[in-house]
Each structure stands twice: as C-alpha cells, then as structure tokens.
C-alpha cells in the first residue's frame, strides 16, 4: 500500500481529486488530498508546504502528485520527506529562484498557446472554463467544480521558488493530450528541458482528474514499480 499525496492547482480544492481518490482507495492505497491555504496572504510556499507535511503526518511510502500550480508545491514536499515518487501532472515546472508570475514568459507559454489556438480554432486559451479547462468533463461535474473555485494569493504567485534544484527522487511527468491551458506540444518541449525526462501521456483535459480519473489512477499506480 502506498500513500498518494494529491496537491491541487491554483484556486482549487482537494475535492477536485475525489474521483481519483476513490479509484486509488479501491486499489488499497491511502490518500491525502488537502485544501491548501491558497487565498491566505500570510501563507507563502513554505507555509503551504508546512501544512501539507502536517497533513501527511507519519505516513510513509509516499507518492506526491502536483497538478498545475501544484507543481510549485509538490517538489517542496519531496525535498522535506522521504518520497518514493514525485509526479508532475499537467503542472508548472519551476526553476530555482523563479516566481510563478515569471514562469509564463520564461517558458514561452504564451507563444505555444497562441500557436495551438491557431490550429484548433481558438479552443486553446478560451475564456469559457467549460471550453478551456473542463473540456471532456460531464457538464454537471464541471459546474460543480466551478462552484468550488477560489482565488490564489499574491504571495504564492510572486515569491521565488526556494529550492536550489529539484529533489533527487524518481520523477515523472504526466501530460493530458487534450489540455487547452498547457498544450501537449508545449510540455513535450518543456519537460525534457527542465526535468531531463520524457513526459508520459494520457487522454484528458487540463482537469484530467475529473475527465479521466480511472486512467489517471492507473497511471499513478504504475509508478509504484519505479
């Protein structure tokens, strides 16, 4: 049995993992999926990591998964605790000293999104979240997800990522092929550049934990043999 620590993205909640959590628990695993203090201007990246470490407690056999903005938090956990596998899921990959606000320009995200938008007729980057984020998610489930949406604090968005390097633990990256926030070709370039690995691919939108929970759970569990 492993413990999967599921870190949600910016302005989100732990609820977003509930379908994946059910799949993993059905396979006999433990799951920690906390609500991060993402709207609290007194809690930056370090304090957020403190909170997650507290939620984990004395659990071991850890697989830490960071989704989207959670890519800035997940490696902080892997740098503090004995983690078996670190997984970036459709996630922002930080560079040492880089603030999340700088990440977009530093990675060339804008040009990549514009290029993909020209190919798909404006689906990528669409302002309608049902089109740009929740494509492939059943409408009622997507609307429920929207009802949980929160803000993201300026402190976590503007402060530099504190690590000098990525933790030396087995690391995986999972991209969602139908992601309209972070196009697949963008990550196919960025992941080798920043992590030195080739990303794994599964079907699904940016919120792949809601569109393809079973496929995601199977992929996460497969990393236990890493």
- Specify the biggest β-sheet: 6 strands, parallel
Radius of gyration over alpha carbons?
16 Å
Strand content: 5-15%
End-to-end distance, in Å? 14 Å
Could you give the order of the helices and strands? EHEHEHEHHHHHEHEHH
Task: Estimate the global geometry from the Cα principal axes.
Answer: globular
Average predicted confidence as pLDDT: 96
Structural class: alpha/beta
Q: What features would you describe in this structure?
A:
The protein is an alpha/beta fold. It is built from 11 helices and 6 strands. Strands 2-1-3-4-5-6 form a 6-stranded parallel sheet, with helices on both faces. The chain has helices at residues 18-26, 45-56, 74-78, 100-107, 109-120, 129-132, 139-147, 154-158, 184-195, 208-211, 213-222, and strands spanning 3-7, 30-32, 62-67, 83-89, 171-176, 200-202. α1 (18-26) crosses α11. It is globular, with a radius of gyration of 16 Å. α3 (74-78) links the parallel β3 (62-67) and β4 (83-89).
């Amino acid at each position: 049995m492993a413990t999967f620590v599921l870190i949600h993205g910016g302005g989100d909640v732990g609820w977003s993992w509930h379908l994946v959590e059910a799949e993993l628990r059905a396979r006999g695993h433990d799951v920690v999926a906390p609500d991060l203090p993402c709207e609290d201007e007194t809690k930056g990246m370090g304090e957020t990591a403190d909170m997650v470490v507290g939620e984990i407690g004395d659990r071991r056999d850890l697989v830490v998964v960071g989704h989207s903005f959670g890519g800035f938090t997940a490696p902080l956990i892997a740098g503090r605790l004995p983690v078996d596998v670190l997984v970036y899921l459709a996630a922002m990959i930080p560079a040492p000293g880089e603030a999340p606000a700088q990440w977009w320009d530093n990675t060339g995200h804008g040009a990549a999104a514009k290029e993909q938008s020209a190919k798909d007729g404006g689906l990528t980057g669409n302002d309608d979240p049902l089109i740009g984020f929740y494509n492939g998610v059943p409408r009622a489930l997507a609307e429920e997800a929207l009802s949980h949406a929160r803000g993201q604090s300026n402190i976590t968005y503007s402060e530099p990522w504190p690590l000098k390097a990525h933790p030396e633990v087995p690391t995986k990256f999972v991209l969602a092929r139908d992601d309209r926030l972070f196009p697949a070709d963008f990550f196919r370039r960025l992941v080798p550049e920043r992590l030195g690995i080739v990303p794994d691919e599964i079907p699904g939108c940016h919120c792949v934990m809601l569109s393809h929970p079973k496929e995601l759970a199977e992929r996460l569990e497969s990393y236990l043999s890493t």
